[in-house]
Amino acid sequence: MNSLAGSEFRLLYRKAMNRSLPFKISVLVHLRDEEGRLLLLKRKKHPNHGLWSCIGGKLEMDEGESPFECAIRETREETGLEVVEKDLHLFAMISEKNYEDNSHWLMFLFDCSKTLNRLPSNFDEGDFAFHHPEQIENLPIPETDRVALWPVYFQHRKGFVVMRAECATGNKPEVVIEELQ
Description:
The protein is of the alpha+beta class and 181 residues long.
């Protein structure tokens, strides 16, 4: 008798039940201080509770907010730093399928050229800290960030990358680079 791995079973079950998952659109903004350390937020809420990640948030789609507008708003709301479009470089897009088995995400990743001169105040979503780039791989971070987002940031943040990732719970995300410039 053949048995299916958990992620294969969930996928087949979802198809059999004709259940679709919500699709969410968000941004992540990579910010640095004047020393080149990266600003990360240890999240107090889901998704990614207890893990370190860049600032960001969901687009206000009912208002027609663009990814750039969202990145500007989230940067101001979460750090107090005022940025404009020319301070931001869209360096990647990733479509995460089955994230935590409850949604799909389309994320726009930005690198900000404007630096922070202080650590932002902690707030209800998490606690801030600056980390040297070489520390990132040893931090508790989301698995997709570990296998895809941070490597792309360090290698291609001056260019542009489009990726997709299958993120079935319990498995290492399977990442495919669809475009690399």
